[in-house]
Amino acid sequence: MARAYESYYKAFKKTCHVQLRLEFVALKRQSVPRVDSLVEAMFVAELKHRLLTAGHDLAAIRGSVRVGVAAGDMMMADEEGVICSVLYGPDRRTRITPSTRDVFFAVYAPAGIGRGAVRDHPQDLQANVQLIAPAAQMETLEVHGGE
Questions:
Q1: 111 half-sphere exposure, CB direction, 13 A CA radius
Q2: Is the pLDDT score of 88 beyond 80?
Q3: Which residues pair with 53 in a beta bridge?
Q4: Fewer CB within 10 Å, N side or C side of the chain?
Q5: Coil, helix or strand for 112?
Q6: Rounded to an integer, what distance in angstroms lies between the CA atom of residue 39 and that of residue 49?
Q7: Residue 119 — very low, low, confident or very high, per pLDDT cuts 50/70/90?
Q8: What is the pLDDT at residue 102?
Q9: Superfamily of the domain at 2-132
Q10: Cβ-proximal residues to 125 (8 Å cutoff; 6+ apart), any chain
Q11: Residue 71 gets which letter from DSSP?
């Protein structure tokens, strides 16, 4: 999986976010950064599966979310504009905050990462969220595109 992300980022002369996060925690023996519980739940699942994950406050999303490509970069947008891209991360308008109650998670998997590789990720993410909110439920799971 690391190679798929490296190839994706290399085309833009960037470094993979997942790799940097993994190095921060594993190689530098740092703890998971304390941000927001939902962000931390996402971060832990992201590290375990090495899959780039985005999280958004569902209440801040306007209308439906569409998946697409802009300037060669995978992105998602709602009716008001881009909410996230691989290279630039999530926007500020839909970011997870301490007041977030409903969350929208998305996994970005570039060419070379098949659907099977992301199969367990949502369940682990849900389990992490349920550690902080035991009644939390996953309402929808969709996979778009892919091999």
A1: 6
A2: yes
A3: 107
A4: C
A5: coil
A6: 15
A7: confident
A8: 93
A9: Phenylalanyl-trna Synthetase, Chain B, domain 3 (3.50.40.10)
A10: 41, 42, 45, 53, 105
A11: T
Element (H, E) at 18: helix 17-22
* Alpha-helix residue ranges (DSSP H) falling in 23-141: 37-49, 121-132
Look at residues 135, 109, 132, 120 and name the one whose alpha carbon lies nearest to residue 40: 132
Ordered by start, the domain boundaries in the chain are 2-132
Q: What CA–CA distance (Å, rounded) separates 21 from 17?
A: 6
Scan for tokens 């969220």, then name that residue. 129
The structure's pTM equals: 0.84
Token pair, residue 98, equals 């301490």
d(CA 25, CA 45): 13
Tokens of 127: 């389990």
- Report DSSP letters for 78-91, one per residue: ETTEEEEETTTEE-
